[in-house]
Every structure is written in structure tokens, then in C-alpha cells.
């Protein structure tokens, strides 16, 4: 029994330290009494952990200064402030044709964001790693952050990832590109891996339209569909990371694939052009339907082009079936459409909402994300910060170089 006590006590202390950091991030100057109220911990525990976090470099203790006539009975309250610049984290989104990297401080404030084109196929793993190195170096330089100050890196990938951060080897690209090992070996950083849609869900609940929503689905809905699902505020993975994968849509009548809004809009637009040559879409693509883009379809619809409006109505009906199917399974309060297509997808919501009750008995609220194309990288920042909070007692920012002023 005595042998089990020390590890148990240390685990509780780690949990308490994480709760303290979470309570102090962005809170400014706080006293021990205020931390007791926010965490529910005893005074002795709060002060003990604060002293350790000060020693490690997470917190700064401020001097108590009293002016003349400011007499207060008893010992002055100890005041602490979270050191936002104690260290840094990186969030990286490896997309189909580009990488987006965000560098953030320990408050989660982005210090820089860099996007770089990236060919996912027909290049070696070493070449892919070189692209990652360059974009990370550019982002760190732009942020004025030394590479040695990075405590954690989170990488979002378009593949299922299990709880241990391992990619399911269902795609040839990821079989030949062990991003976690390569980045870790090259830089010595602790690298986390997570599915891109899962990271989008973390970002949306953290800083997006889903703040405070515990039962949530966030769908990356560009060329392909992917979903991150939160139940009672907890990200769901399933046995091997496949929770939220949408391959079952191949068997849903009227859906038939995991193609997203952008792909579906182009397909419907081209079909409309074949049926009706008198359409603004044909003008926008200079008479070449193969050059039609989703942006052109949405633009033509905004100008009142009936063929484009009809095409987008068919896209909205398909998305109603998609959302109805996954909502029947997960029963979310809110579904958010996210990614590069989110701004355009706003016009689809009325039709999706109107049709949704035909495909599920529990239709959720719908919204589009305002976080833009950086949503996965932002979610990766949240993921990295969660790791740092959980392991705060094992990390010592006091020994790291600080950000350039």
C-alpha cells in the first residue's frame, strides 16, 4: 500500500498543477484566495503548487506594495501572474497541397502564421520533411521565437489517428512519411499527432462559434468531408482512432461518397452548364467547364443565376442527408461547417436547415466557422497547450531562451 501512495499523490499533484495553469491563463494577476475559488483546491495545495510553478518558470510572483495609509490587518496576499512568454508551442496542419503553421505563446496567442504550398505525392519523405523544416523555421523567425523554446508541436493530418498518436496505415502517403518521428529526431521537440477534423473541433470549441457547447460536430467540408465529434466536451476517438470517419456515406442514398461542398458544387455546376448554356457560370469559367471552381458557382448564385442557385440547392440537399446521418448517430447540439469553404457555405444553411428534419428526428443547430483556413493549426495549438498543462511539473520554462522583444 505504501508503494502505491507516492505515484498516486504525484498524479493528483500533476492534475492540480494543470488545473492551476488553466485557471491562470489569461487571468492577469491573481491571489491565492482567487485560485482557491477557481480551482476548489485548499490554500496549502494552491500555495505549494504556486511555489513549484514559480520555481519551474511558469509563474511570476509579484511583490506586494502598500502605500501610506494602506494598512491591512494580517499578512498581505501573495500575488501571482502566469508568464505567457515562458515557452512556445507550434500547431501544424498538413493539408492536401499546403502546410499551415502557427506559433503561439503559452496563453495561446498566435505570434505568427505561415502557409506554404506542399506536394503530397511523388516526392520523398526526406523532401517532405525539408518542407516542414522550412515552414517551421520561417514561422519561428517571424514570431521572434527560438526553436529551443518550443515545448510541444501538434500536427494535424487527414487520416485516422489513435489515442497513442499513431496514424492508421490506410493511406500510402502516411505509410511513407512518419512525420512525428522525423520532426522529433530533427529538432528534439515533443511531437503530437491528431486527425485534422478533431483539431478543428478543438479550435471551434475553444475560440469559435461553438464556445461552451459540449455536444458538437465540426465538419471539414471542402473537397472531402471529415468530422471531429465532442461528447460531453470530450473528443471521441473510438478503439483505433476511427470515430468520426465518414466512409459509411458511400452507402447513404443520395450521398454516395465523402466528397465535400467544394467538390459537390463544382460537379453540380458543370452538370447545370451541360443542361443550360445560358448561365453566368459559363462566363466566369471563360467557356471552359473544366476550369469551373466552387467559388465561381457561389459567385454566380450570388448574382441571381438560376442554374447556379439550383446547383447549390442540390449541394445543400446532399449536405442535409450527410448531417442527418451523422446526427442520428451522435445526436449533437450543434454542427459547424468549417475549413476554406465555410464562408461560402453560409448561404447553404437555410436550405440545409429546411431539409434536415427529413433525415433525422433530432436535428441540431447549424453554423459556419469564422476561424478560416487556419482552423486546424489553431486546434493544434490547443492540443499542444493541453499537453503542456498536463505535464507542467515535468517541464521547466525557466531554463529556456525567451522570445525576442
In short:
The protein is an alpha/beta fold and 405 residues long. It has helices at 2-24, 32-39, 43-56, 125-143, 172-175, 179-187, 196-207, 261-275, 280-284, 294-302, 306-330, 342-345, 349-356, 375-390; strands at residues 29-31, 59-62, 79-82, 88-94, 98-105, 110-117, 150-157, 191-195, 216-221, 225-231, 234-235, 334-338, 365-368.
Give me some keywords for this one.
5-stranded mixed β-sheet, 18% strand, Arc Repressor Mutant, subunit A, 405 residues, single chain, Nucleotidyltransferase, domain 5
Fold blueprint:
Elements: H1 2-24, E1 29-31, H2 32-39, H3 43-56, E2 59-62, E3 79-82, E4 88-94, E5 98-105, E6 110-117, H4 125-143, E7 150-157, H5 172-175, H6 179-187, E8 191-195, H7 196-207, E9 216-221, E10 225-231, E11 234-235, H8 261-275, H9 280-284, H10 294-302, H11 306-330, E12 334-338, H12 342-345, H13 349-356, E13 365-368, H14 375-390
Parallel strand pairs: 4-7, 7-8, 9-12, 12-13
Antiparallel strand pairs: 1-3, 2-3, 4-5, 5-6, 9-10, 10-11
Helix pairs in contact: 1-3, 2-3, 7-14, 8-10, 8-11, 10-11, 11-13
Q: Your description of this structure?
A:
With 405 residues, the protein is an alpha/beta fold. The chain has three domains: 2-82, Orthogonal Bundle (Arc Repressor Mutant, subunit A); 86-202 and 376-399, ATPase, nucleotide binding domain (Nucleotidyltransferase, domain 5), CATH 3.30.420.40; 212-370, Nucleotidyltransferase, domain 5 (2-Layer Sandwich), CATH 3.30.420.40. It has 14 helices and 13 strands. The strands form three sheets. Strands 6-5-4-7-8 form a five-stranded mixed beta sheet. Strands 11-10-9-12-13 form a five-stranded mixed beta sheet, sandwiched between helices. Helix 1 (2-24) crosses helix 3, helix 7 (196-207) crosses helix 14 and helix 8 (261-275) packs antiparallel against helix 11 (306-330). The longest helix is centred in the last third of the chain and has 25 residues, at 306-330. The chain is elongated. The model is unreliable at 1-5 and 67-72 (pLDDT under 50).
Amino acid at each position: 500500500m505504501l508503494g502505491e501512495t507516492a505515484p498516486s499523490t504525484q498524479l493528483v499533484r500533476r492534475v492540480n498543477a494543470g488545473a492551476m495553469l488553466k485557471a491562470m491563463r489569461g487571468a492577469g494577476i491573481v491571489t491565492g484566495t482567487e485560485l482557491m475559488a477557481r480551482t476548489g483546491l485548499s490554500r496549502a495545495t494552491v500555495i505549494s503548487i504556486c511555489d513549484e510553478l514559480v520555481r519551474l518558470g511558469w509563474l511570476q510572483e509579484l511583490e506586494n506594495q502598500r502605500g501610506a495609509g494602506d494598512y491591512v490587518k494580517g499578512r498581505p496576499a501573495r500575488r501571482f501572474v502566469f508568464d505567457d512568454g515562458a515557452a512556445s508551442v507550434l500547431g501544424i496542419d498538413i493539408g492536401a497541397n499546403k502546410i499551415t503553421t502557427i506559433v503561439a505563446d503559452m496563453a495561446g496567442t498566435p505570434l505568427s502564421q505561415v502557409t506554404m504550398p506542399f506536394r503530397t505525392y511523388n516526392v520523398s519523405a526526406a523532401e517532405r520533411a525539408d518542407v516542414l523544416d522550412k515552414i517551421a523555421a520561417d514561422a519561428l523567425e517571424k514570431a521572434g521565437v527560438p526553436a529551443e523554446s518550443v515545448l510541444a508541436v501538434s500536427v494535424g493530418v487527414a487520416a485516422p489517428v489513435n489515442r497513442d498518436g499513431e496514424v492508421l496505415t490506410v493511406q500510402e502517403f502516411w505509410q511513407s512519411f512518419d512525420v512525428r518521428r522525423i520532426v522529433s529526431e530533427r529538432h528534439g521537440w515533443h511531437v503530437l499527432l491528431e486527425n485534422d477534423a478533431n483539431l478543428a473541433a478543438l479550435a471551434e470549441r475553444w475560440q469559435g462559434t461553438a464556445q461552451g457547447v459540449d455536444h458538437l460536430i465540426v465538419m471539414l467540408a471542402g473537397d472531402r468531408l471529415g468530422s471531429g465529434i465532442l461528447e460531453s466536451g470530450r473528443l471521441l476517438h473510438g478503439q483505433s482512432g476511427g470515430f468520426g470517419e465518414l466512409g459509411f456515406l458511400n452507402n447513404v442514398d443520395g450521398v454516395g461518397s465523402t466528397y465535400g461542398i467544394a467538390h459537390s458544387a463544382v460537379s453540380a455546376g458543370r452538370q447545370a452548364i451541360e443542361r443550360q448554356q445560358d448561365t453566368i457560370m459559363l462566363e466566369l469559367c471563360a467557356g471552359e467547364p473544366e476550369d469551373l471552381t466552387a467559388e465561381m458557382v457561389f459567385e454566380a448564385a450570388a448574382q441571381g443565376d438560376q442554374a447556379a442557385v439550383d446547383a447549390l440547392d442540390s449541394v445543400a440537399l446532399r449536405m442535409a442527408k450527410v448531417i442527418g446521418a451523422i446526427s442520428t448517430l451522435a445526436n449533437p447540439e450543434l454542427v459547424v461547417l468549417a475549413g476554406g469553404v465555410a464562408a461560402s457555405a453560409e448561404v447553404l444553411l437555410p436550405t440545409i436547415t429546411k431539409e434536415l428534419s427529413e433525415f433525422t428526428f433530432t436535428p441540431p443547430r447549424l453554423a459556419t466557422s469564422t476561424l478560416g483556413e487556419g482552423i486546424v493549426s489553431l486546434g493544434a495549438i490547443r492540443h499542444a497547450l493541453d499537453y503542456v498543462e498536463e505535464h507542467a511539473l515535468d517541464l521547466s520554462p525557466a531554463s529556456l531562451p525567451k522570445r525576442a522583444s
